[in-house]
Amino acid sequence: MAGFIAILIATILWSTTEVVTRTIVGRITPLQLALIRFLFGGLLLVSFLPVHKRLTEVRITRRHLGHAVWIGLIGVGIANAAFQYSLKYTGASVVATVFGTNPLIVMVVGAVLLGERLTSEKISGVLLGFVGIVVLAFSKESPTFSLFGFGLAMLCGFCFALFTVLIKRYAESQNSFPLTACCVFFGGIYFIPVVWLEADWASLRQALQYWPTLLYLTVGCTCLPYLLYFVGLEKVEATQAASVLFLKPPLATLLAALWLKEPITWNLMAALCFIFTGLYLVIRLHRQRLSHG
């Protein structure tokens, strides 16, 4: 239960990311925002490693660092570069809905990398979930929608699903936090040369004007949710952890409607219905099959 509560809190915090980020889109570049979020968020996570070591007697090994270098590139570097630009080219509610298919992607990736069995319920759920995002892809009603932004949101969702499964695979019991902290930190480092090549120093200097928003994105949308999600992942299966993320789309959509005045279109609602039906199949009915032997 503790693992699910930690993941639930992480999901609620992540649900605010798209909405808060959209409030400063265009004021600093997407890559600069990613650099600030993950470099400083990673530093905060790494600073907790000595405390974690005293509590659990788990040390950071060369194995952790080696895996963190390439997993951080996928799950933090590529995923969040795609995320930031997807918010620039499409609406926050659309990005959140696409990310809501993450549990379905985890089912597939988990079957390949963790050997988790794909039942008929899981397969049906995956198909329904992707029907939902196809419906969403052809939505033209939102003025902030674009197929390019939609594609970037899909790339982000796939990379984060892969990140979830890789952390579960390569982190031993009670070792998710050290590996996660190192991944986030290395992911932040990857943005340094990219921002340097971008060379938009005027925009970077203006970032100080938005320090309350950036502080929330760093702590409330990066440090805390990553910590809670992957610590919770130690206690539950990858597919179970990912299932909690189905709460993210409706929460983010509601926030986008309230704060950003984004329209709630019929395409979005239809996509949510397909996705939720798919999640019900892969989570609830699959568990019922297992409980009945």
Short description:
This protein has 293 residues and is mostly helical.
For the terminal residues, how far apart are their CA atoms? Answer: 23 Å
Radius of gyration: 18 Å
Count of distinct structural domains: 1
Looking at the structure, what is the overall shape? globular
Characterization of this structure:
- It contains 15 helices and no strands.
- 78% of the residues lie in helices and 0% in strands.
- The chain has one domain (2-291).
- It starts with a helix and ends with a helix.
- The mean pLDDT is 79.
- The chain has helices spanning 2-14, 17-22, 30-47, 49-56, 62-89, 92-99, 102-113, 120-137, 147-170, 176-198, 201-206, 211-232, 238-243, 248-259, 266-291.
- The longest helix has 28 residues, at 62-89.
- It has 293 residues and is mainly α.
Give the topology.
Blueprint: H1 2-14, H2 17-22, H3 30-47, H4 49-56, H5 62-89, H6 92-99, H7 102-113, H8 120-137, H9 147-170, H10 176-198, H11 201-206, H12 211-232, H13 238-243, H14 248-259, H15 266-291
